[in-house]
Amino acid sequence: MPDLSVDYLDLDSLLSAEELKLRDHVREFVRARITPNIARWYEDAYFPKEIAPDMGALGLLGMHLTGYGCPGHSAVEYGLACMELEAGDSGMRTFSSVQGSLTMTAIHMFGSEEQKQRWLPGMAAGDLIGCFGLTEPTAGSDPAEMRTTAVRDGDGWVLNGGKRWIGLATIADVAVIWAKTADGISGFLVPTGTAGFTATPIQPKLGMRASIQADITLTGVLVGNEAVLPDAHGLRAPFTCLNEARYGIMWGAMGAARDAYEAALKYALERHQFGAPIAAYQLTQQKLVDMVLEIQKGTLVALHTGRLKDAGMLRHEQVSFGKLNNVRQAIEICRQARTIFGGNGITLDHSPLRHANNLEAVRTYEGTDEIHALIMGQAITGLPAFVTAPCQSATT
Question: Where is the Acyl-CoA dehydrogenase/oxidase C-terminal domain (predicted)?
Answer without folding.
Answer: 233-380
